[in-house]
Structures are given as C-alpha cells and as structure tokens.
Automatic annotation (TrEMBL):
It comes from Tuber magnatum. This is BOD1/SHG1 domain-containing protein. It comes from the Eukaryota. Residues 1-13 have a biased composition (Polar residues). InterPro entries: BOD1/SHG1_dom (IPR055264). Transmembrane segments: none annotated. Residues 15-26 have a biased composition (Basic residues). Residues 29-41 have a biased composition (Pro residues). Residues 54-152 form the BOD1/SHG1 domain. Residues 1-43 are annotated as: Disordered. It holds the Pfam family COMPASS-Shg1.
Length: 156
C-alpha cells in the first residue's frame, strides 16, 4: 500500500484524483517509512522474485481490489471520514479566505495549492491511523491468503 498512500492515489479518494502527474511530490521528498514498520531487509534476487510473484498472484486473483474496496467501505462507515471531510472543507475555506484569487484560478491549480497546504499539516494522520487499524483487523485473513498462494506455488 505504500506506493499508493499519497492522497491522490489513495483508495480513499474514491477515484477522484487528477490525471496529471505534475502535482505529486518528487520521490526525494516522500515521507520516511512508517515508524511501526521494520527497516527494509536486504533481499536476495530469488527472494525478490518470489515476493513479486506472490504480489502479482494476489492482485491477479482480485484479492487486493477486494480488500481495497472492503477497507474503503469500512472507512466510509466511520466518524473519521466525516472528521476528515470537515477538516478538508475547513482548510479549503481558510485558504480561499486567505487568497480569494483561488476561486478564479483553474480548478486543478487551485486544488494543487490547497492539497499542498493539507500535506503540510497533519490532516491525513487520523485517516492513516484508521486505515491501518482496519488493515490490522484483517491481517490474519490477508496472511492466510498469502500462505495459501505460497503453498500452491511451492506445490507447482
């Protein structure tokens, strides 16, 4: 999920994101890995290949999309979503009040400027925490699916 954790690629945006790529932060400015994650181990080429095959199989069988949709639906049923939307509306309103010319600008450019303000703050932290909790609740299920795939691949 780390590749898609930026807001414009997040499953939480419900597909409403810009199709231009110039507003994404360059890779050099991405935040460090989450503190609860262990450091990335150095893996052999064989291990990397096995992981890639496992990831590809998991996605091809639709498990990733199903999990993403379930997590999104679970998230939409929480108060965190309402608090998140309220916080975004408050930030957008404050930015427009600070700079009324945002209303006259191209919507994409105005959205980029407001998104930059959101990214500088901690607005996403509660959302990230809620999603992490929803994923943690499904961890045993996810691990079971992955083990099943590994067993099938080992048997072939």
């Amino acid at each position: 999920m780390s590749d898609s954790y930026r807001p414009s690629n997040s499953p939480l945006t419900n597909g409403h994101h810009h199709h231009d790529n110039h507003h994404h932060r360059p890779a050099s400015t991405l935040p460090p890995p989450h503190p609860s994650l262990p450091p990335t181990p150095i893996l052999s080429e064989e291990a990397k290949s096995t992981i890639d095959l496992l990831k590809t199989t998991y996605k091809k069988r639709g498990h990733f999309d199903s999990l993403r949709k379930d997590i999104y639906q679970s998230f939409t049923d929480t108060d965190t979503k309402l608090h998140f939307i309220t916080a975004l509306e408050k930030i957008a309103g404050a930015e427009i009040e600070r700079d009324p010319s945002l209303l006259a600008r191209d919507k994409g450019k105005a959205a980029e400027l407001i998104e930059a303000t959101v990214l500088r703050g901690d607005t996403y932290s509660n959302v990230e925490k809620a999603v992490e909790e929803l994923l943690a609740a499904r961890r045993a299920e996810i691990e079971g699916m992955l083990r099943g795939i590994m067993e099938e691949q080992g048997a072939s």
